[in-house]
Amino acid sequence: MLPVPVLERCAADMLNYQGxxxxxxxxxxxxxxxxxxxxxxxxxxxxxxxxxxxxxxxFLQGGATTQxxxxxxNLLKTGKADYALTGSFASKAYKxxxxxxxxxxxxxxxxTNFDHVPTQDELDIRPDAxxxxxxANNTIYGTEYQYDPEPPAGVELVADMSSNILSKPxxxxxxxxxxxxAQKNMGPAGVTVVIVREDLxxxxxxxxxxxxxxxxxxxxxxxxxxxxxxxxxxxxxxxAKWVEDMGGVKxxxxxxxxxxxxxxxxxxxxxxxxTVAAKDSRSRMNVTFRTGNDELDAKFAKExxxxxxxxxxxxxxxxxMRASIYNAMPIEGVEKLIDFMKKFAEENK
Length: 349
Ligand code: PLP
What we know:
This protein is an alpha/beta fold. The chain has helices at 4-13, 32-48, 63-75, 88-97, 215-220, 230-245, 248-268, 294-306, 331-348, and strands at residues 55-60, 80-85, 102-108, 131-135, 137-138, 143-144, 156-160, 177-181, 192-197, 274-275, 286-290, 321-324. The strands form three sheets. A seven-stranded mixed beta sheet has the order 1-9-8-7-4-2-3.
């Protein structure tokens, strides 16, 4: 979901970007106009996320899933890394990383169908691991870290923020790497942002691994080693500017807290629907719930769709319902959903 003002601006620029005589889609990535666009996108994202100067910002292709491999390929030195298994994307990243070294699960909530993220005390991180990996917001299960985990000294913290980036302030300096597919909170599908501390670059065995996944090659060429996802980068810049104009990530955090607490407050106040995620792990971006009856859940998905609300059907691995309330979702969208939920509960209890 993208903010309406961003889509309007895309429409206005579509045929003739700022008097250039062409659409951004048609531009050469080597052109002067496009160079201005990618530089502006990076500068805006740096301001909005307060990214320190000793971090590189890369705009890559291949989705977050490609980074599941790129992370161990770029970061392993001793060959060891630890993962917190909190859902299907963290588990997929772990599985991919196992192809490259000695991986260890520092935590897993698989036995309770990934209904919570770990507390700091529950983490069993090896002190000689190269990095410790988390999925900051578990899109499918509706859980989110409410704190920045602290690995032992010397172990880099790596986070997949695909589904909660730009939704709250983040102290980037606590992380070695933050990365995110753009398509939830930052832009259209097709761009993946990697934010990496400079001193972590340069360990990639270029002689045996593909050049496309080497972060240093991409950093040295300002994400233009080959053709970058040009249009997506342009839209991402507009979204970052929208966040800035709305009051920045602090304002996004307030909006996210308001939206999600409206839903959780309603869910906690009744007994027709049950929440899925443990209370202290609840996501502000993806709210998961169910009626406890698969047929009713299916009916809910169908009727909510007919009422103009799409994508409320939960992921197949969890079932039930999932309300994805990313940055662009207005409060009115949540009010409409709660009204629908009340009416549905009344009609089906
Ligand atoms: N990580 C998280 C948290 C996600 O939500 C997703 C997709 O929904 C992915 C990774 C996979 O992203 P992609 O489809 O860009 O590979």
